[in-house]
């Protein structure tokens, strides 16, 4: 506790960390939250729109059912995302759209592809293989752990009731 | 003997160079983005390929440092073997850029790490060695590369994560200065070595706020120790505080009675045009090195600037220290130059 | 009409992500992890299936659906094979997504170089 409130010298002034951070925060460039949300909305929406179109295409032309069509749909979106990542375009889209390109499954694919491409210089085994999940790893880990716990809880509840 | 020691160590942090220590030559090699910035005409070499013709980003950075030193030696009309020591550093783990480049140059190496403050850390130390007679000719050099810094400290370069407006753009480039006694070139008169300062900023996408206190601490010590004020300088620059850290320094220095107004600028703001989409501005070892060893040396040589203080600022974090919840400790080292003499 | 709903719902989920980034000041990895777990939780309470019926790709494309698929796989296996099904079934439904991402990502590393 003492370390948080203890004043430190900056030149001839004595300031606590809190005091400094308050002063510094005045100069933080304000994020344009409205604009970012708008961009995230339309880019994310468009990607989902594309997904919907792909899904319908797979149902009507390739004989998939409502249930099974999401598989090739997701695979196609991932393919497009990996391609755009490799071509060096996805990072620009990402800076513009923020969550709009990160939240759809395309963002997941981009995190894996960008890490794989980046670390190829360290070889395929340690570089590509070892670093591929640098960013996506936490998504997979937390998804699996959450599903595991939720699955156990639901199954146990079913057994009891 | 005692009086000489007195003029060498002015105070705990500030050194005075009584001998005629000069930056006899300087050279800078940069990447394409820097070559499109406002200082392009001052750079010795601009590459149009961010890979600098190499296979990996790390090799590209090494080539930049090697080129900077090679051009420097050409400009000074000397060979590698005429240089007693090279003091150099970069941002990468274990200073690999410096290590591999020094091996190629076959000059005795003193590798140093100061993050983005390395330019002045190495230059001040080189000046001290030359002043005291431990080296006749010393080179101070450093480098940084946008891609190597991104992939080590932040994200893979093709990752689509959105950066906030306080983020900075690591400068791709290398700068080198040749330090010796006499000859032509700006005199190095004083150096103030900084102490690590940490005011609890934790966000690696907001280095400006983290580093500003270190800059204030060092610049303030410099003024106190030398008895100088901001008006004694034609130009005072910080290394890479950029749009967020620059106003913080101005405010804190003004509050302490050292108002730095027209003469104060920041290399991270000088090296790029705002239209180049560099968020808050430039950062990296090369930010201060590239501006100092090209533009500032040129202005001093031509007598357009008489007295300049360069305060390079560094953020001493690692990816692990940040992930473990630590804040970002920072440091700043300043060197004073006298030109047109 | 289904296109409009897919666009709107997908866009809204992305807006939630953007607010977590800008207002919550979370990193992208934290935001994704939060959304994936949300998908699990919503499916636990039976809400996510309804959302998919309503919004189609607007609910299956965002990363939240990944959490939903993981949980779905676990539960459907558990229904047929008992408690052990929770572990054997987790990756069943999401296999397409993960396999595609790994395979294409690896192929990309063969073909592409990072451009900085």
UniProtKB/TrEMBL annotation, chain A:
Task: Return the protein name.
Answer: Stage V sporulation protein AC
Which InterPro entries does this chain map to? Answer: Spore_V_AC (IPR014203), SpoVA (IPR005562)
The answer, when asked if Membrane is one of the entry's keywords, is yes
What is the organism of origin for this protein? Brevibacillus panacihumi
Give the superkingdom in one word: Bacteria
Membrane-spanning regions, if any? Answer: 33-54, 74-90, 97-117, 137-157
User: What NCBIfam families does the database record attribute to this sequence?
Assistant: spore_V_AC
- Which keywords does this chain's UniProt record carry? Membrane, Transmembrane, Transmembrane helix
From TrEMBL, chain B:
Q: Which GO terms describe its molecular function?
A: acyltransferase activity
Per UniProt, what is one Pfam family of this protein?
Answer: SpoVAD
Coiled-coil ranges per the record?
none
Q: Which InterPro entries match?
A: SpoVAD, SpoVAD_sf, Thiolase-like
Name-wise, this protein is Stage V sporulation protein AD
TrEMBL record, chain C:
Keywords of the record = Membrane, Transmembrane, Transmembrane helix
Q: What is this protein called?
A: Stage V sporulation protein AEB
Domain of life of the organism encoding this protein: Bacteria
User: InterPro entries, from UniProt?
Assistant: Spore_V_AE, SpoVA
> Which organism does this sequence originate in?
Brevibacillus panacihumi W25
In the UniProt record, the signal sequence range is none
Q: Membrane-crossing residues? A: 6-24, 31-48, 83-112
């Amino acid at each position: 506790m003492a370390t948080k409130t203890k004043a430190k010298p900056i030149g001839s002034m004595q300031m606590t960390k809190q005091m400094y951070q308050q002063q510094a925060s005045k100069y933080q460039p304000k994020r344009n939250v409205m604009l970012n949300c708008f961009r995230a909305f339309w880019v994310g929406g468009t990607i989902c729109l594309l997904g919907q179109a792909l899904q319908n295409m797979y149902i009507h032309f390739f004989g998939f059912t409502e249930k099974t069509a999401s598989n090739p749909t997701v695979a196609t979106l991932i393919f497009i995302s990996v391609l755009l990542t490799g071509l060096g375009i996805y990072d620009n889209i990402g800076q513009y759209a923020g969550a709009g390109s990160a939240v759809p499954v395309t963002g997941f694919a981009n995190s894996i592809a960008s890490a794989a491409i980046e670390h190829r210089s360290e070889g395929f085994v340690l570089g590509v293989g070892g670093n591929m999940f640098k960013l996506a790893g936490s998504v997979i880990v937390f998804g699996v752990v959450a599903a595991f716990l939720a699955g156990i809880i639901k199954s146990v509840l079913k057994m009891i009731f | 003997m005692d009086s000489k020691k007195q003029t060498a160590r002015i105070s705990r942090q500030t050194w005075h160079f009584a001998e005629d220590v000069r930056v006899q030559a300087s050279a800078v090699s940069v990447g394409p983005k820097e070559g499109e910035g406002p200082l392009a005409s001052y750079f010795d070499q601009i590459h149009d390929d961010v890979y600098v013709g190499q296979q990996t980003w790390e090799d590209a950075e090494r080539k930049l440092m090697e080129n900077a030193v090679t051009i420097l030696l050409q400009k000074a009309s000397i060979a590698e073997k005429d240089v007693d020591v090279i003091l150099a550093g970069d941002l990468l783990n274990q200073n690999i850029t410096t290590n591999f480049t020094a091996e190629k140059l076959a000059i005795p190496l003193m590798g140093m790490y100061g993050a983005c403050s390395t330019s002045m850390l190495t230059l001040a130390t080189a000046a001290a060695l030359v002043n005291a007679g431990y080296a006749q000719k010393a080179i101070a050099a450093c480098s940084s590369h946008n891609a190597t810094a991104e992939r080590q400290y932040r994200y893979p370069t093709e990752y689509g994560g959105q950066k906030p407006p306080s983020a900075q753009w690591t400068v791709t480039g290398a700068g080198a200065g040749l330090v010796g006694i006499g000859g032509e070139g700006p005199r190095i008169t004083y150096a103030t070595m900084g102490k690590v300062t940490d005011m609890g900023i934790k966000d690696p996408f907001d280095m400006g706020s983290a580093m500003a206190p270190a800059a204030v601490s060092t610049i303030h010590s410099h003024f106190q120790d030398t008895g100088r004020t901001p008006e004694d300088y034609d130009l005072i620059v910080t290394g890479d505080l950029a749009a967020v850290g620059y106003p913080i320094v101005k405010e804190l220095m003004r509050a302490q009675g050292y108002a730095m107004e027209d003469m104060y600028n920041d290399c991270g703001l000088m090296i790029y045009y705002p239209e180049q989409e560099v968020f808050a501005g430039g950062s990296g070892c090369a930010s201060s090195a590239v501006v100092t060893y090209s533009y500032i040396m040129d202005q001093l040589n031509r007598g357009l600037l008489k007295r300049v203080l360069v305060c390079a600022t560094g953020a001493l974090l690692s990816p692990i220290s940040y992930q473990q919840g630590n804040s970002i400790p920072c440091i700043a080292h300043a060197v004073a130059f006298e030109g047109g003499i | 009409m289904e296109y409009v709903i897919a666009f709107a719902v997908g866009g809204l989920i992305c807006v939630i992500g953007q607010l977590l980034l800008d207002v919550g000041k979370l990193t992208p990895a934290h935001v994704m992890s939060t959304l994936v777990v949300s998908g699990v939780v919503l499916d636990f309470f039976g809400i996510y299936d309804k959302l998919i019926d309503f919004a189609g790709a607007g609910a299956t494309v965002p990363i939240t659906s990944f959490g939903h698929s993981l949980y779905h796989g676990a539960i459907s296996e558990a229904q047929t094979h008992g408690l052990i099904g929770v572990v054997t079934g987790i990756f069943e439904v999401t296999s397409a997504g993960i396999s595609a991402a790994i395979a294409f990502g690896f192929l990309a590393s063969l073909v592409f170089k990072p451009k900085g």
